[in-house]
Amino acid sequence: MWIDNLQYANWSEKIFRQMRAGGLDAVHVTIAYHENFRETVLNFEQWNRWFEQYSDLIMPAYVAADIDVARETNRTAILFGFQNPSPIEDDIGLVEIVHRLGARFMQLTYNNQSLLATGCYEAEDTGLTRMGKQVVREMNRVGLVVDMSHSADRSTIEAADYSERPIAITHANPFDWAPALRNKKDDVIRAVVENGGMLGFSLYPHHLKDKSACTLESFCTMIARTAEKFGAQHLGVGSDLCQDQPDSIVEWMRMGRWTKETDYGEGSASAPGFLPMPTWFESNKDFGNLERGLRTVGFNEEEIAGIMGRNWYCFYESSFHAAPAEKRLLNSPPSELKKNCSA
User: Fold this and answer.
1) CB atoms < 10 A from the CB of 172, how many?
2) 66 in helix, strand or coil?
3) Among 24, 228, 286, 295, which residue's Cβ finds the most Cβ atoms within 10 Å?
4) Cβ within 8 Å of residue 48, ≥6 positions away
């Protein structure tokens, strides 16, 4: 079972076919960056059209068991998430609505201060706001995962401790391996995993040691060191693959509507656009290279299976339904699901 828990590609039939060629059983797709609620609904509408048009390649997933259906029918299951809380605007009631539409992850910030928490590019990190705490509890209630990939340290630690359910950092790497603002220090990762959460490793070049020149060995050795510190069962892949996107999209990601000035994010004036991906991970067809690399650095087969997808699958199984006190959305899991999550 292979799962990539974060992509923002320029979706097309070519990419959907590459998902199949690469053996991807599920992909978590970013469906909103800075969009408001209505704009996000239009993005869901576009995906519904793709599900109809390419029904032999992709299907929507709302619970972990949908991935089993995708595997049985030789398709890739698509899950949705937001990289910003902008789709809920300033209305906590929209948390349940977006979950019903199909969202399963929501970041509390995207680099900047939001109504909920502080982003990793802010000079002062004030932690979860009053609204942030209310929204986290509502996300816990309905089964929308708290994602802190672009959040500052204090905010992430507070979210991990305050949330009644495990949270995720879907796409980042350890700061001590590649000291980008977006990468996470050990105390932040520890807070997430000690509360049962997940860390997804990013292949976005600005998050990598040596950027586009990062080697597969270096990347997988980093994963091995992280597993030694925090346990392989808390680790997965969230590649942050932005395949075929024009540079105007990285401008949208960094600037949205909040500034009139050019913001280069992790880039620079001399390199403002997307950097080339490492040669060993240029598209979904290359996903299997990660398994080969993990085996080379000494992971056993059970650990490899977990990092390549089973850990995310088990996280989904426990996260996407309503809180245990409200057992209205999930029946007993099938035996295959229990087997997948038994380790």
Assistant:
1) 28
2) helix
3) 24
4) none
Give 46: exposed, middle or buried? Use CB within 10 Å, 0-12, 13-18, 19+: exposed
134 is written with which tokens? 């209310």
The pLDDT score that the predictor gives to residue 325 is: 58
Residue type, 200: G
pLDDT of 340: 56
Question: CB under 8 Å to 339, separation ≥6 — which residues?
Answer: none
Say which range, 31-45, 104-118, 265-279, 301-315, has the weakest mean pLDDT: 265-279
Residue pair 122/152 in contact by the 8 Å Cβ criterion: yes
Q: Which residues contact 327 (CB under 8 A, 6 or more apart)?
A: none
* Residue for token pair 């359910």: 165
Considering only residues 337 and 304, tell me which one the structure prediction assigns the higher pLDDT.
Answer: 304
Can you give the pLDDT at residue 331?
Answer: 36
Residue 335 predicted with pLDDT over 80? no
What letters, b where the CB count within 10 A reaches 16 and e where it falls short, cover 227-266?
beebebbbbbbbbbbbbebeeebbbebbbbeeeeeebebb
Q: Find, among 341, 340, 343, the residue nearest to 303 by Cα.
A: 343
CA–CA separation, 317 and 136 (whole Å): 19
Which residues are bridge partners to 271 per DSSP? 268
pLDDT in tens, 211-263: 999 999 999 999 999 999 999 999 999 999 999 888 778 787 777 888 888 88
Q: Are 127 and 118 in contact (CB under 8 A)?
A: yes
CB 208 within 8 A of CB 278: yes
**Alpha-carbon dihedral angle through residues 66, 70, 72, 74, given to the nearest 10 degrees:** 180
CA angle 85, 90, 94 (to 5 degrees): 70
Residues of the chain above pLDDT 70, percent? 95
> Tokens 């828990």 — which residue?
5
